[in-house]
Amino acid sequence: MQRKARSKAHLGEFELIAQLFAPLATSKAALGLCDDVALLRVPNGHELVLTTDAIVEGVHFFSNDPPKSVAQKALRVNLSDLAAKGANPIGYLMALALPAQATTRWLKAFCTGLQADQKRYGLSLLGGDTTRTDGPLAIAITAIGSAPRGKMTRREGAKPGDVVFVSGTIGDAGCALELLKTRRGAQRFLTERFRVPEPRVRLGRESRGLASSSIDVSDGLLADLGHIAEVSRVRIAVRAGQVPLSAASRALWRGGERAVVRAATAGDDYEIAFTCRPADALNVKRAALRAKTHVTEIGTVERGRGVVLLDSKGNEIKTARRGYTHF
Q: Mean pLDDT for the chain?
């Protein structure tokens, strides 16, 4: 972890690294956070899979969110990308831009969240950087995983005739965000779905070799399936009646077509949307059982371009947007 700037966290940066972050550097590759780099060995017969995502206070989480959940969200949104590729997590690099109000107490709780997830998902902090900012708290993580050579599940690969699956339920984080923004409060289930997403790491591994294409659902189900459709040069038809919604989101949005549209375009789900050949559909369901993750068949891949949401009669449901956009 580079030692450049001082963070206003009641500890100097060197002390911050030594006391809070070094205990998270459990891999020998991290070199005890005593160098400016990590030294990582690729497992035999495997390739590295790398991804990076940043979360920013006021955009991806609220200032009063528990520091433990902020840390876990920062890490898990990256693990979700690895999960969609069928990769095994190895480690991560983390860059923190800390405002003055990020006290030592807050940072200790933050590191507790990282420590819990490192144990759960089997990875280590490998290095990073800390700096001070006069703006909001920002956390950028680069996650590193591995997959057997040539076996990573890509976005490109969906073929006409394939079926489309999605894990978990869609729209819960969007429900929670709507309630939290309007200060109405959200029930615990929805709040946790927003604050602490569940990366489907085991499902990604179990479906490796079965899924013809895959993506994590971060910006919205329709928007992210659109990325698969674009690079695979196909059309994806999603049946609105099959999109899985939780009882909590159905209650808030009162069910029906309107609720599905809101869920499918809300974002922040961090589920996996993927395609497979019809002949592999049963094995996909078996893989999901092994991964203890519910999956739902929601549509088909066709000739053409783009993504459409269809009603029970097969007519396209027009949507004002496909998902969340940052710019």
A: 93
